[in-house]
Amino acid sequence: MTTAPAGTVTQAVPLRLRERIRHWLDSEPVLAYLFMSPGWLILLLFMSYPFFLGIWISLTDRTVGLPSGEFVGFRNYAELLRDRTFHLTVMNTFIYGFVTVPFKLVLGLLLALLLNQAFPMRNVLRAALLLPWIVPTALSSLAWLMLYDAVLSPFSWLLKNWGLIESNIAFLGTRTNAIISLCIANIWRGTPFFAVAILAGLQAVPQELHEAAAIEGANRVQRFLAVTLPVIKGILVITTLFSIIWTFADFQLVYVLTKGGPANSTHIFGTYAWQIGIGGAGKLGIGAAISLYMFPVLAVLSAILLRYVRSQEA
Amino acid sequence: MAQVIYDHVTKRFDGVIAVNDLTLEVKDGEFLVLVGPSGCGKTTALRCLAGLEEVTSGDIIIGDRVVTHIPPKDRDIAMVFQNYALYPHMTVYENMAFGLKLRKMPKQEIDRRVKEVAEMLGIQDLLNRKPRQLSGGQRQRVALGRAIVREPQVFLMDEPLSNLDAKLRVQTRGELIKLQRRLGVTTIYVTHDQVEAMTMGHRIAVMNQGVLQQLDTPENLYDHPANLFVATFIGSPAMNIFPARVVTGEGTVRLVAGDVTLEAPAEHRGRLAEYANREVLVGIRPEDLIVQPGQVSEDRQLRLPVEIVEPLGSETLVHLRGPAGALIAKADPHLHFSPGELASVRVKIEHMHAFDPQTELALF
Ligand SMILES: Nc1ncnc2c1ncn2[C@@H]1O[C@H](COP(=O)(O)OP(=O)(O)O)[C@@H](O)[C@H]1O
Ligand SMILES: [Mg+2]
């Protein structure tokens, strides 16, 4: 490559540069980073920037009316630790996130097992199953709002008709009732995701394995445990973790149904952050801090999730 | 150990009759091969016996029990699947022990049996591996081992060698034969490969389109095929078939096809005479055509042009232009044939077959 005759030295320089670039592009690590760069850029622009901006805001006393706030260190975080409503919010979020998921998991599994059987109109039912998940939550939440209405609730009407209760139930009227009502609506919305994901897993179980186990003497339950469960285990873990994360970070359902009420007793992180940061007081700094308190929990859950996915790949 | 009886078993899938009125008796300890082309209903017949398919009509008997409506687990059978169907998350040991655990066998007894069978199959070093860490041949052994440890009355095997490469298949074939003779367990073995069928079975059941064509020993299937289908299915390359007119003369019966005339074997003259002046289908196996290049002495009966020469090493297949399409002959690999030249052909008349052109049943 460097054997150019003496007279052509001036041309040799750009030639060699091009050669070097080509050589450089032949190297796999360089190419790998090159191909990854668009992804990195998008991540930086749309995920990291807002995230770090959020952290910055949480360290200032910025408000909606006064966008250029002063740096206040961890004052916002400290203030929240003394805030009774925030304590309730943390508790509510954990209840909301961890109590609903087992129900969604079990109901989703049962539904999936049912829909994996052969019966007429199965495909129609499979499609219908997805509805709660497809319908925009804002819309379905409005439907639930009506179902939970203090005066017009059809649940109350039915139960009264059957003589089971005397007067209407205040579904959203007390903290306990409201949280139970929220959880039920959340379970309704989240179950299809489990069912569909698990159904996909069930269909990946080879029929031959069931037959082999049946010949060897396994009954239905034993076959489920020995053949089906190991195949869908990964899906169960992943959907569960996803569901916890999503439920933790929920906003719409609670916002539409209770707006955090009564008396700010049913807030979750999302709604409380919104109320403090934008809705009521407009204290952007504290709002951001509320959101960021969620970060460690979500980070741990995500780490578990990622580790699990990686271990399955190996 | 037990006998197995299919008693007029029919299995119909909406529209398709997969197994049509199958009646078949498998003797205690016998290695019976079900053979036939793809889609002829072999697997379905086996699955009916296993209880994985409900029969449409007829009865199935294992030992002295009618098991027609008994679930698979109570039929005391073990099945080796074509794709082995090993439990992917269980180790080899657990795969083999699974059925025994379900039967609540004591742990030591399970351990003893699994290790004994693993030793027998040469997989004792693989017991802690998962199926995905095994080669095809090893998986096949594990599947076999899983069937053997249960000590069932009947083994069912559905093309268990078809996923192995050619060399391993031949080797495993031999081992499987030895194993079955040693264990003496009644075995029903499904394959589409007639070589496997011929080498492995005590008896062979040939099926076509759901119908049992013939049930016989390998020798009899080869020497006395019951009909045209069996005649052409068994043997490779397939038996040459061509139509010929039966011409009777004073004390002779001749078969005339184009400019080829064959003297019928003396013992079959009577049978052929019934077809005087009509056509029959003549069948001659490639190995029953003695072929030599060029023109040889007088007792050669035919002289036919060579069309294609296929040297296979151990033998050479010579395609001759026969009276109706090609005639294939197996020739000594050391002889040299050239396309376009004439070859001398002697027919081993005593091994000739003839079939009724309508019923396709064998005349002899
Ligand atoms: N579950 C089924 N539903 C409908 N048709 C089937 C089913 N199983 C097999 N068949 C049909 O039955 C016939 C025999 O199939 P099979 O027993 O698998 O043949 P083989 O094992 O000899 O190749 C085929 O025509 C096949 O299409
Ligand atoms: Mg088959």
From TrEMBL, chain B:
UniProt feature coiled coil, ranges: none
Stored Gene3D superfamilies: 2.40.50.100, Nucleic acid-binding proteins, P-loop containing nucleotide triphosphate hydrolases
The entry's keywords: ATP-binding, Nucleotide-binding, Transport
InterPro entries: AAA+_ATPase, ABC_transporter-like_ATP-bd, ABC_transporter-like_CS, ABC_transpr_MalK-like, ABC_transpr_MalK/UgpC-like, Mo/tungstate-bd_C_term_dom, NA-bd_OB-fold, OB_MalK-like
Matching SUPFAM superfamilies: MOP-like, P-loop containing nucleoside triphosphate hydrolases
SMART domains: AAA
GO biological process: carbohydrate transport
MF annotations from Gene Ontology: ABC-type transporter activity; ATP binding; ATP hydrolysis activity
Protein name: ABC transporter ATP-binding protein
One Gene Ontology term, aspect cellular component: ATP-binding cassette (ABC) transporter complex, substrate-binding subunit-containing
Species of provenance: Thermomicrobium roseum
